Every structure is written in C-alpha cells, then in structure tokens.
Amino acid sequence: MARIYYRSDVDRSYIDNKTVAILGYGSQGHAHALNLRDSGVKVVVAETASDAAERARRERLEVLSAAAEAAARADIITMLVPDDKHPAVYAEIQPHLGKGKLLMFAHGFNIHFGQVVPPPDIDVAMVAPKGPGHRVREVYVEGVGVPALLAVHQDASGTARQTALAYADALGATRAGVIETTFKEETESDLFGEQTVLCGGVSELVKAGFETLVAAGYQPEIAYFECLHELKLITDLIQQGGLAYMRYSVSDTAEYGDYTRGPKVIDQHVRATMKQILADIQSGAFAREWIEENKNGRPNMNRYREEAAREPIELVGRKLREMMTYLAKSAAAKQQ
To answer: Tens digit of pLDDT for each residue in 280-323?
Structure first.
C-alpha cells in the first residue's frame, strides 16, 4: 500500500526561517509562490517574462529577473519553468547549489532522464500537486487542498523527506494527502496518463466521435455538444465518486451503453497500443524524441499546433463558446 502523509505527519520547523526561490511564475509557479507565502514561508520569485513578473508584483511578491540571484539567496530552489527550459535554467543556478540546499521539482522528467544532474552534496526532492496550478491555488484559498506526490532523489542532509513534506504542507497538499513515490514512477506514470488517457486519448476520442457524427450528416453544433461539451459533466462525476458514481448518476440507457459499447471502442488493440506507448516511455524513446524536438526548434510541435487550430471541431467550438459567456469569464479569471 502507498504511504500517505497528512498534516499530523508534518514538522513545519523544517521549512521555518528558510527562503524558497520559485523559478517561473506560470500555472504551478504562481500557486506555489502564493500558497507558500500565505503559509508564512519567505518566498522570492525569478521570472523573465514581463507580464508574469508584473502579476507576481501585484501579489506583493519579491520578483527577481535572474534565476541565479534567486538561487543564491534561497535555501530551497523550486524548478517550475517548463520542462524543456530546465537544463538552461539549471546551468544558471548550478554555481549557487551548495551543501545544505534543496533543489525541488514538481515533475521528475529532467532528473529521471538525466537532463539535470545535481551535485551529490545537495538534497533533491519533488512535490507534485495532482492538479493544475489555478486549482491548487483555489482550493488552498477555500481552506482545503489538492493531493500531491512526494519523492526524494538525493538525501544528502538526512532531512530531505521532512523538508519536502513541510513544503507540501505549506502548499496545502497535506490537507488532502501526500503520496510517497519515486522520480521514476511519477515521471513514467505521468507521461503515460497524459499520452494515452488525459490528453492524447481523450483528444482523439472526442475528435473521432465528432467526425463520425458529422460525416453521418448530423449538425456540427450537435456533434460538438454530444462529444466535447458534455465531457466535463461526466469527468466531474468520475472525479467525485469514481466510475460507479458516474454510472449511478447517468441514465440506465447510458449505463448500459457504457458496459456494452465501451469495450468495443477501447478494445484489445487499443490496450496493446497503450503497452507499446508505455514501453517507449520506460525505454526513454519518448524522452529522446521530445528532447531532440526541442533542440531542433520544435518543427513538428509547431506544425501540430497549426493543424489543430484549423480542425473543424475547434472552429465550431470557438463559435459555440462565444454564446456561453460564463466559460469566457471563468477562463479569464483563472489567467489572472
């Protein structure tokens, strides 16, 4: 069984009187910085993008333009820039990683695949909230928390786990539960989930359903609502009470269709493909492909984005969302 930590397991003295440098003020960066600050932790933010830096200043955070300066001043340095930026940012801060410091991550990719290799005399740990940054912040303000994963890669001080757990507590994660894992397990399972279910799998399933209905003569607007818009209603039910609660909440007709038709869509061929995708992740093949893509200036990524923006489901959805003003207001609020 997984080891799960809660607030009663935490000794906050391990983070008291320490300075945390948050490198990057994006989705996770802003949530970490604000939650830590509101928990009484001293925080400095390193951010080069002017708009993000201005947002941080409006929140009365101390903002520095150089990651190296922030790292020099901090006891805990948290890497929250995009994964592909880690090696360059690490090169800036590496001279300031001395004995007694903790290098923190929210995702294990660059440690697990050797893109960042810290010196052996520092602590290296990970606290990975299981939710997007805006949600990590929202539920903290509400007095609850988002669950998180915790892993220790190097424990030079002998107190890396206690300090990381105190960090997770200051984020609000111990209000929900912090599960102990490893960098390997977090990285490989996270990539697999993104590629086969949460992003890749869902995106292709939604598009395939939409295109099947439209090709059969149904109105694109109707297809959009049936295959995309209502998806949130279902995933909210699943998150709240699992597949059983979702099946309890929908009609008996929908539940019967779930049992009898779902396995025909996600069949053994799909499961075999999932196993191959997992094998590519475990072998490092996907990591090497993604690292090379970034080194080459992202030619494929840029093409994929351009093609995706022109897909019929996106064009139809853009028009339909204009009439749903509550969606626009919600999205704007989360970007503040």
So the answer is: 999 999 999 999 999 999 999 999 999 999 999 999 999 999 98
Count of C-beta atoms within a 10 Å radius of residue 35: 24
Q: Check pLDDT > 60 for residue 332.
A: no
Amino acid at 216: A
**81-95 per-position pLDDT tens digit:** 999 999 999 999 999
Q: How far apart are CA 251 and CA 243, in angstroms?
A: 14
Cα–Cα distance measured from residue 101 to residue 79, given in angstroms and rounded to the nearest whole number: 13
Is residue 127 within 8 Å of 148, Cβ to Cβ? Answer: yes
Catalytic residues: 107
What does the pLDDT read at residue 336? 47
Cα–Cα dist 301/159, whole Å:
41
Give the phi and the psi of residue 23 in degrees, each rounded to 5: -95, 100
Q: What is the DSSP letter of 186?
A: H
Copy the structure tokens of residue 160: 């890396």
**Backbone phi, then psi, for 249, in 5-degree steps?**
-85, -30
Instruction: Round to whole Å and give the CA distance between 25 and 252.
Output: 46
Structure tokens at 224: 């959009």
Please name which of 126, 112, 115, 72 lies closest in space to residue 96, comparing C-alpha atoms.
72
- Find out whether 46 and 213 touch, Cβ atoms under 8 Å: no
- DSSP H stretches of helix in 59-159: 67-73, 86-93, 109-112, 133-141
Question: Which one-letter DSSP state was computed for residue 107?
Answer: S
DSSP readout, 82-101?
A: -GGGHHHHHHHHGGG--TT-
312 vs 210: CA distance, rounded Å = 9
Count H helices and E strands in the chain, helices first.
17, 9
CB 107 within 8 A of CB 32: no
d(CA 146, CA 139): 7
